Amino acid sequence: MRHKERVGKVFAFAANTVTSGVKDGIEKNPTFAAYIDRAGREYAAHSATPKDYDSFVDQISKMWAEQPNWSDAQLKAIDTPILVVDGDHDEAIKREHTEYIAAMIPHTGLLILPNTSHFAFLQDQRQFNFAILHFLGDE
Fold it and tell me: Which of 47, 48, 62, 70 is the 20 to 30 A CA-CA neighbour of 78?
């Protein structure tokens, strides 16, 4: 929205445009919790600040609780090619919100990946990567 000249296309996976687009109780979902735990192990193994994961999770959790909060007018003003994508059983993002995003932004496509969730990039890497490459025009 702020730097249109820098963006050619947007592959918006498991996105929300308002905080109410996130399902209540996501922090208690076992699949989501397992991913946060996995990410913590990977953070410790690969980060330049391996002991700072808890601080990172605290900060990103605060961000998730407060952002984003984009208005319908802001969404309708977007003119960048966008593909809104999600898994067919996302644990975190409400399906109706995914559909709302695709309907609100002009000239936006919607793709629901079968047999995947918020973690489609791990659950079906071939399908996920094909979707990205196809949208970008490389496949």
Answer: 62
List, run by run, the mean pLDDT of 10-residue segments along the chain (139 residues): 90 98 93 94 96 94 94 95 97 98 97 98 97 89
Find the distance separating the first CA and the last CA of the chain, reported in whole Å.
27
Residue 106: cis peptide before it, omega within 30 degrees of 0: no
User: What pTM, to 2 d.p., does this model score?
Assistant: 0.91
Q: What is the model's pLDDT at position 139? A: 58
CB half-sphere exposure, 4, CA atoms < 13 A: 8
CB 35 within 8 A of CB 41: no
Q: Give the C-alpha separation, 31 to 97, whole Å.
A: 20
CA dist., res. 74 & res. 104, Å (int): 10
Amino acid 91 reads: E
Burial 65-95 (b: 16+ CB within 10 A, else e): eeeeebeeeebeebeebbbbbbbeebbbbbe
**Segment holding 85, helix H or strand E:** strand 82-87
